[in-house]
Design a protein that fits this description.
This protein folds into two domains: about 120 residues, Serine Threonine Protein Phosphatase 5, Tetratricopeptide repeat (Alpha Horseshoe), CATH 1.25.40; about 130 residues, no CATH class. α4 packs antiparallel against α6 and α6 runs antiparallel to α7. By secondary structure, the protein is mainly α.
Length: about 250
């Protein structure tokens, strides 16, 4: 599989087809071992053939449950649903996107229950990132109240604050408030917009502190945008002596 991944075009597809063939043969010889089928589903996911990956994951779900602790099949299934959601979103098929996000979150929760991952850092980080992706999708639909409920769910997870270094929680919440500020501004609510962007700036600074100043270009651009909007409100006297919204 690794060799196939390093190739391009038709040659890579031939190698992947051959890999699927051999995994399928192995699965037929060992029907109660889910590894071969997990590999097939992973290949189909990488190919963007999400319906086929879904079919394979669904077919082996009950067999894989007893080995979830080691193979994390339901978490892999959840990751596939996330990629499917992003693909649908990029294609403009908004009506189907949310169902894939919700299915992903449900599968992550199943993985936790089956594999007893309540305090497992890898699971917590994966699940948190899925929640944050869903929240930002809700932002893109101007469903800001619903998005805030998702952010609140993250803050109820074990070790969420310590894991924020890996999940980018504060940055995603900062982006949420910046999007909300723009929405309020265009809907002629300048004072509320000023408060929202102040919250955005505060969250960007929190992330900077957590990372001990080691921030990336996406953070710099996001902070720059929020700072410019905040400076505009200060210079125009909008919402002076304001505090940010609850973070």
């Amino acid at each position: 599989m690794l060799e196939a991944a390093a190739k391009n075009g038709d040659e890579r597809n031939v190698d992947l087809d051959l890999a699927i063939h051999h995994y399928r043969m192995a699965g037929e010889r060992h029907p109660y071992d889910p590894v071969s089928y997990i590999n097939i589903a992973t290949i189909q996911t990488d190919r963007g053939n999400y319906p086929e990956a879904e079919r394979v994951f669904s077919a082996i779900s009950s067999v894989a449950e007893s080995r979830e602790k080691w193979f994390r099949m339901h978490s892999k299934w959840a990751e596939m649903q996330l990629k499917w959601a992003v693909s649908k979103d990029q294609a403009g098929e908004k009506a189907e996107v949310e169902n894939h996000y919700l299915r992903s979150l449900d599968l992550f929760r199943q993985s936790k229950e089956i594999g007893h991952f309540d305090l497992n850092q890898e699971w917590l980080i994966q699940y948190t990132k899925a929640l944050l992706m869903y929240a930002r999708f809700l932002d893109s639909c101007n469903r800001f109240d619903d998005a805030r409920e998702i952010f609140d769910q993250v803050r109820k997870l074990a070790n969420w604050a310590n894991n924020s270094k890996y999940t980018g929680f504060h940055v995603e919440r900062a982006r949420h408030y910046y999007s909300y500020a723009r929405y309020l501004w265009f809907n002629r609510k300048p004072e509320e917009a000023a408060k929202a962007v102040k919250s955005s700036l505060g969250l960007y600074k929190s992330h900077q502190q957590i990372m001990k100043g080691k921030v990336n270009e996406a953070w710099r651009q996001g902070y720059k945008d929020a700072k410019e909007m905040d400076d505009f409100f200060i210079n125009t006297g909008i919402g002076q002596q304001r505090k940010g919204l609850n973070n």
